[in-house]
Design brief:
The complex is a heterodimer of chains A (about 325) and B (about 250). Chain A has helices spanning about 15-30, 50-55, 75-85, 100-115, 220-230, 240-245, 275-280, 300, 310-325, and strands at about 5, 10, 15, 40-45, 60-65, 90-100, 120, 125, 130-140, 145-150, 155-160, 175, 190-195, 210, 235-240, 265-270, 285-290, 305-310. By secondary structure, chain A is of the alpha/beta class. Chain A folds into two domains: about 5-185, 3-Layer(aba) Sandwich (Rossmann fold), CATH 3.40.50; about 210-325, TPP-binding domain (Rossmann fold), CATH 3.40.50. In chain A, helix 5 links the parallel strand 14 and strand 15 (about 235-240). In chain A, helix 3 (about 75-85) packs across helix 4. Chain A starts with a strand and ends with a helix. The termini of chain B are far apart. Chain B contains six helices and 13 strands. Chain B has helices spanning about 35-55, 70-80, 95-105, 130-135, 190-195, 235-245, and strands at about 1-5, 10, 35, 55-65, 80-85, 115, 140-150, 155-160, 165-170, 175, 200-205, 210-220, 230. In chain B, a hairpin with a 2-residue loop joins strand 8 and strand 9. The model of chain B has no long low-confidence stretch (mean pLDDT about 95). With about 250 residues, chain B is α/β, with parallel strands linked by helices. A nine-stranded mixed sheet of chain B has the order 9-8-7-10-6-1-4-5-11, sandwiched between helices. A two-stranded antiparallel ribbon of chain B has the order 2-3. Chain B has a single domain (about 1-205), classed as HUPs (Rossmann fold, 3-Layer(aba) Sandwich). The chains are: A alpha/beta (about 325), B alpha/beta (about 250). At the A-B interface, helix 3, helix 4, strand 7, strand 9 and strand 10 of A face helix 3, helix 4, strand 7, strand 8 and strand 9 of B.
Chain lengths: ~325, ~250
């Protein structure tokens, strides 16, 4: 029996979806290895403790709350030190992070501090008696590596979307803790954070992504993609590298090996040929739809449903049909 | 300014990969190798800093067998001052094992900056940079897309999901470089000639213990063969029906 640790990522006082994914993974791991406890760590500015109940709903037995007025924004050194302090005495079989921008920054620091190893960007895992097996897509998603991870705790960062949050409700005990170092003495300081695009859904959290490529011909024509996303409702808008390189969309919208790696329930590729670099970022989507004028485009090889033809006719029609169906 | 840039030799990702008989490595037949994309951006950032703020030195380091010397020579041809090979039979998958070897080499080097690519494009883990920083107890900013260095301090921008952060830090520091910051220069013929005479030191890599090892490699499950359901806007109603009733995603 082993207890599991989960980092519950938050931003601006709100839990992110990946926090529930990490807690769900820890719960699954604990239940599969004899029913140990799940301890989730929540760190940020005062007021965050109010979010602890939500983590209990997904299976956290204990929520460690680290609050400090100096933690309005991410502080990599304080976060890493606080996590390492909690993990160092032992007792945790595995620790789960999200392979998000923050988790990818944080988990290797915690690993170095503990002198342990880390499996990154994991899509599946299995807790064995003496090791953890973790699957990780590498080589632009063209090779799946199964990794054998020993040592306690085994550190894993999970690809956003790879684990579906599942409720396992309980009343979590709250433990308050002070940060392991004073944020005022941190060397690396996040001095500003700018939210792009206001309330729009993040690519890593959206169940549906509508993505556009060069086939759209101009930045203005992305309106077609945005209208389709709006008609679907819970959809985010992505783009190919060619499009972000040309400045039609911000670099943060890029899906692909060098951009975001996403696994939504539905991925609609509009005017995207399907270069290796792009497929690496979205081939794990559950359902893929492709709309392209070239019937030989590689995107059709991975698309569950393809329509060949002029996207400027097909996409508005699709938007209309979805509005009707939802109406 | 003295800058170290850690680079990795990786296969060209446009290739078709197949798994070797041991099920743990790639079939090497026909593979071409190059410097990792992000490592190229990191080297470019270092070269530009020294060019603008000189005088200085850019040292490229790579861990691995003698084949990495080719990648180091490319770094020298781009303009690095000298190169160091940390010799090992192979590059372990475990980022900590690699970070320990790099930290040992870099510890007393007197570097103002130690740069990495955001991740190696082959193992796609992005752990060695921040782990090396942790072992050296140096400030670290990962995955940066903008950088300013002035009077012993730096300001960097990091892109997050739907947001970005401005991060300030003192030097010396470890940074990992995302794309978007710059494009890597091509080596000139003159640079390639000069690189042949630049120093390339070889030292044994003091690798740490590997607790993360490759159990097996596999090619990803093929998605069910793609299905084209029709042509033109007339196929849209059928698509909506399939998405609702078959895929159940709408």
């Amino acid at each position: 029996m082993g207890s599991m640790f989960a980092f519950a990522e938050s931003r601006g006082g709100e839990l992110r979806k990946v926090a529930f994914e990490a807690v769900t993974a820890a719960r699954t791991a604990a239940d599969a290895s004899g029913g140990g406890e799940v301890h989730a760590l929540l760190i940020g500015a005062p007021g965050l403790a109010a979010r602890a109940g939500e983590l209990g709903r997904y299976g956290a037995d204990v929520v460690i709350v680290v609050e400090h007025a100096g933690l309005e924004r991410y502080s990599p050194e304080v976060y890493a030190a606080s996590m390492a302090e909690r993990l160092r005495p032992g007792g945790y079989r595995a620790a789960f992070f999200a392979a998000s921008a923050q988790g990818r920054d944080l988990a290797p620091r915690v690993a170095a501090s503990l002198g342990t190893s880390l499996a990154s960007d994991v899509t599946e895992f299995e807790i064995k008696l003496d090791a953890v097996l973790a699957r990780h897509p590498a080589y632009t998603g063209k090779v799946i590596v199964t990794l054998h991870l020993t040592g306690e705790p085994a550190l894993l960062s999970l690809r956003p979307g790879a684990v579906t949050p599942v409720e396992s409700p309980r009343t979590a005990r709250i433990e308050s803790a002070a940060p392991a170092m004073d944020p005022a003495v941190a060397r690396v300081v996040v001095t500003a954070m700018s939210q792009g695009g206001g309330a729009r859904l993040d690519l890593g959290e959206a169940p549906v992504i509508v993505s556009g490529g060069r086939g759209l011909r101009s930045a203005e024509n992305f309106k077609l993609v945005e209208d389709l996303a709006a008609a679907i409702g819970n959809a985010a808008v992505g783009a190919t590298r060619a499009v972000t390189d040309d400045g039609w969309r911000p670099a943060t919208d890029q899906i692909g090996q060098t951009g975001r790696l996403v696994s939504p329930d539905l991925y609609i590729a509009v005017g995207i040929s399907g270069a290796v670099q792009h497929l690496a970022g979205m081939r794990t989507a559950r359902t893929i739809v492709a709309i392209n004028k070239d019937k030989d485009a590689p995107i059709f090889k991975v698309a569950d449903y393809g329509i060949v033809g002029d996207l400027f006719e097909i996409v508005p029609r699709l938007t209309e049909e979805i509005r009707k169906a939802k109406g | 300014m003295k800058i170290a840039v850690c680079i990795k030799r990786v296969p060209d990702m446009e290739m078709r990969f197949s798994i070797a008989a041991d099920r743990k490595s790639l079939d090497q037949g026909g593979l071409k190798y190059e410097m990792g994309d992000f490592d190229g951006y990191a080297l470019e950032v270092a070269l530009q800093l020294v060019e603008k703020q000189g005088p200085g030195e850019v040292v490229v380091l790579s861990l691995g067998p003698d084949s990495v010397q080719e990648t180091l020579r490319k770094g020298l041809a781009m303009g690095a001052t000298r190169a160091v090979q940390l010799k090992a039979d192979e590059v372990p998958f475990d980022g900590m094992a690699v970070a320990q070897a790099l930290a040992t080499e870099l510890k007393d080097g007197g570097y103002d900056l130690i740069l990495f690519g955001r991740m190696a494009t082959d193992t796609a883990s992005g752990t060695v940079g921040p782990m090396t920083a942790g072992l050296l107890d140096l400030p670290c900013v990962t995955s940066i897309s903008q950088l300013d260095i002035a009077s012993g301090r730096g300001t960097a921008r990091r892109d997050l999901e739907g947001a970005s952060e401005t991060v300030e830090f003192p030097l010396p520091a470890v940074l990992t470089i995302d794309e978007g910051i710059t494009r890597a220069r091509l080596a000139s013929l003159k640079g390639i000639m000069a690189a042949k005479k630049k120093p390339l030191d070889v030292r044994p890599a003091q690798l740490g213990p590997a607790r993360l090892t490759v159990e097996s490699l596999a090619l990803p499950a093929e998605r069910p063969a793609g299905r084209i359901i029709g042509e033109g806007a007339d196929a849209v109603p059928e698509l909506v029906r399939l998405l609702r009733t078959e895929a159940k995603v709408l």
